[in-house]
Amino acid sequence: MKKLILIALCALAFTGSLFAQTYMTRTGKISFSATAAHSPEKIEGINNEVASIVDGKTGNIVFQVPVKSFKFERELMQEHFNENYMESDKYPKSEFKGAISNSGSVNFTKDGTYNVSVAGKLTMHGVTNEVNVPGTIIVKGNKLLLKAKFSARLQDYKIAVPSVVADKIGKEAIISLESDLTQK
Amino acid sequence: MRRSFLLTAVCLLGITSSYAQTDSLMDMLDKTAPLSKKETVSATFKATRIINGSSVENLGAGVLDFRISHRFGQLNQGSQNFFGLDDATTRLGLDYGITKWLMVGIGHNTLNKEDDGFVKLKLLTQRKQGMPVSVSYFGNISIQTTPAPTLPAGDTWEYSNRLFFTNQVLVARKFNDWLSLQLMPTIVHYNLVDSTNSDNNTFAIGVGGRIKVSRRIAITGEYYYRLNNTDMLYNGSKTYNYASIGIDIETGGHVFQLMLTNAPGMTERTFIGQTTDSWSKGDIHFGFNISRVFTVVKPKEFRQ
User: Fold this and answer.
1) Which domains does chain A have, with CATH numbers?
2) What's the confidence (pLDDT) of residue B3?
3) N or C end: fewer C-beta atoms under 10 angstroms in chain A?
């Protein structure tokens, strides 16, 4: 009897990874604003090449952001972003590895809007920090729409802002994420 | 007993495997990623000019660049002329990026009252893997608009006498974060030269480079070696190969380029073949370029 229960449990554990509901995208969108309070111009970037996978079974989430794919309203800003602030030749990708803390409350098989909290490690500019991000997951058929908004202190990621541009670039970047993932 | 222990172990393995999954998910993204191979090398130079001559950098699509360039007189003019600062030649220019690979520009020079126009085409872009160099084509036409000289009765001063043409191939490589070098095989065609002893075409090979000393400051250099026409006279004076050293300073929306050069002229035809000042004699000019860019057409992500 004990053996039977064990076998059953075992089978369950493995089927979990066999029939994983993974959702993926390569065209997710992340935008950020690091505009200082009284800045004459907006310091904003948009990236439409964000790659992401959500594992519906485990609640694991990963994001990969090619830093050079951020677009800016002014081309010179984009060059400075890559050359002077993010050093994207040295650190070409930003990454997030984490998991939905309350993954039990999300039913990936049932359409609906779920509020989630995602905890994990965010790596930007070669520096990794633990972050906790609130967001929503909208389940619609075999698609997931992820939405989140959070802020990151530039100092925490060793992104130095020279005093000459301190009136334009804020101390924090507000990061917004919107990703449409499709079940694989 | 032993068997159930084994089963538990296998069972645990099954469960733990699902925890260490973020790394494997990341691997999945890496493996299917199309980006790593395509990745291009950017910012080979800070500006679209190394000093006088063009670099392989283009303006982005929809970007307008207003350029003010100044070359003062010779330093060896002494205190009488405030070490050359009393004299100056100026070029005012407007450059525009039509697409990310095609850029055009026009300018007016006080020296010879010369108007110039150019196109620069990006042909190849250096990549992290594969393509080792960036290659561009640069071509320009310039027109000298000074009044025609007084000629004997019956002679006419052809308009074509005022025209000069430059064709260049720019081959550049960014070796690492701080070092970029560029080679520029060049032909300058002079519709009119001083004497019949000179060829109308001057062939030259240019070498340029930059060494980045900090995130916002770089040291630059540029030299054009003439392969023929080295004895060409200009307005009766001996000509010398052109060389400059400079410094690029980046401040927010501007790039300042400061330089020491033996050429007071800023069009290819003047600095490559008609530089009558010599470094060794101390005929050195201080000068600067200021560039201010404006976004005329916003990238599609920012259009309303």
Assistant:
1) 20-183 (2.40.128.110)
2) 62
3) N
Phi and psi based region of residue A142 (left: phi greater than 0; alpha: psi -120 to 50; beta: remaining): alpha
| Nearest C-alpha in B relative to A30 | B301
Name the percent of chain A lying above pLDDT 90.
64
Report the CATH number at residue B46. Answer: 2.40.160.40
Q: What integer pLDDT is reported at residue B35 of this predicted model?
A: 53
Q: Which of A58, A78, A168 sits opposite B18 (nearest CB)?
A: A58
- Selecting from B28, B252, B295 the residue whose C-beta is nearest the C-beta of A53 gives B28
CA distance B125 to chain A (A): 15
Question: Is residue A95 a contact partner of residue A65, using CB atoms and an 8 Å limit?
Answer: yes
Domain that holds residue B219: 31-302
B36 CB neighbour count, 10 Å cutoff: 12
Looking at residue B42, what is its pLDDT?
87
For residues A19 and A21, give the distance between their C-alpha atoms in angstroms, rounded to a whole number. 6
Tell me what pLDDT residue A17 has. Answer: 45
Find the mean pLDDT for residues B18-26. 69
Angle (CA) A144-A145-A148 rounded to 5° is 135
Tell me what the pLDDT averaged over chain B comes to. 89
Looking at the structure of chain B, the number of domains it has is: 1
Residue type, A97: K
> Is the confidence at residue B289, as pLDDT, over 50?
yes
Q: Do A58 and B8 touch (CB under 8 A)?
A: no
Of A100-104, B106-110, B249-253, B296-300, the range with the lowest mean pLDDT is B249-253
Between A2-18 and B2-17, two packed helices, what is the crossing angle to 10 degrees? Answer: 20
Query: Is residue B34 scored above 90 in pLDDT?
Result: no
Whole-structure pTM value? 0.82
Residue B243 lies in a domain: yes
Is B7 among the domain residues? no
ipTM tops the 0.85 cut: no
**From the candidates A73, A76, A95, A131, which should be mutated to test the interface with B, based on the most B CB atoms within 10 A?**
A76
Three-class secondary structure of residue A91 per DSSP:
coil
A95:B26 CB<8 A: yes
- A122, A131 Cβ separation under 8 angstroms: yes
pLDDT at B155: 87
Nearest CA in chain B to A20: B18
Taking CA–CA distances from B295, the nearest residue in chain A reads A74
CA proximity to A75, closest of B290, B47, B134, B136: B47
